[in-house]
Amino acid sequence: MKRIPAIKDVMTAFPYSVDAEKPLEDARTMMLEHDVHHLPVTQDGKLFGVITLSDIRLKSDPGHSGIAKGALVKDYTVADPYHVDLKEPLDNVLIHLSNYHIGSVVVMRGDRLAGMFTLRDACRVYGEYLREYCRPPLGGNDVA
């Protein structure tokens, strides 16, 4: 029987991050340039929260108050994000994401940012699992 991997084995290592005091546009630009939808937010070198491209877009849509001129990243950040240690088993993370309707987890090494794991990563990992463990055997012995 295979072991359940730790989050460190499947996370996106060394993720981009943004400082809480930066202009909101900096975060949006960074996400678009690097094709990411979640950014850890730091303040004074410590994890402060997470900002998502979806939240920025939602608040920009008609019918919402819009993004205030001069808005900072911290104004649109979800503070105290779900975060785990590098050694956290993947199944625990996946169940937590599902139970609490969360789109990402920040992975920490002590008090330092080590990685991110998002629903996009979960789909990638599951796809790889299916390819490895569920492909029919080669050799043409399939029943018609």
Key traits:
elongated; single chain; 8 strands; four-stranded mixed β-sheet
Describe the structure.
Helices cover 31% and strands 24% of the residues. It has 144 residues and is of the alpha/beta class. The chain has a single domain, classed as CBS-domain, CATH 3.10.580.10.
What is the CATH C level class, in words?
Answer: Alpha Beta
Helix and strand element order: EEHEEHEEHEEH
| Estimated structural class | alpha/beta
Radius of gyration: 18 Å
Shape designation: elongated
CATH superfamily label: CBS-domain
- How many distinct domains? 1
Question: Mind sketching the topology for me?
Answer:
Elements: E1 12-13, E2 18-19, H1 24-34, E3 38-43, E4 46-52, H2 53-60, E5 78-79, E6 83-85, H3 90-99, E7 104-109, E8 112-118, H4 119-133
